[in-house]
Amino acid sequence: MNPLMYDATVKVFDRSLGALAAILDKAVAHAEAKGFDPAILLNDRLAPDMFTLTRQVQIACDTAKGAAARLAGIEVPKHEDTEATFAELKARIAKTLAFVDGIPAAAFSGSEDRTVVLQIRKQDVTFAGRTYLFEHALPNLFFHITTAYAILRHNGVAIGKGDYLGAR
């Protein structure tokens, strides 16, 4: 087994999505302290052509569960995109982490060379597992978590680099 592929998948996803969940808690606390409904933040976005905070969290979760499943050679679970509250987004993160954490490390054996085929913009794109993880899945995960962070920071939520990096 290649422990790098397991560590770069499961351990990175655990920490990153855990940090995202904690940032969402801070967003709710911020809204409550300022006297406004936290739900207002869910539909905010950085620019008119970007996804909302809710969608950023959903895509981060989809990226993590999809990458872990594809690299482990198992079916990607389907999660409906129905979250409408911070509690529901946190539940989605928890469900994603439970799935990712439930994949045994041995399932990642040979994953660096496993063929991964994704449909991107209506075209099939083929990756070797290692390339998929390091050049597609991880950058995609970090992009959506960073964008969620930026939406909340832009709205005055007191979060910083330590919040983004998560607990050690």
Automatic annotation (TrEMBL):
Pfam families: DUF1993. This is DUF1993 domain-containing protein. It comes from Metallibacterium scheffleri.
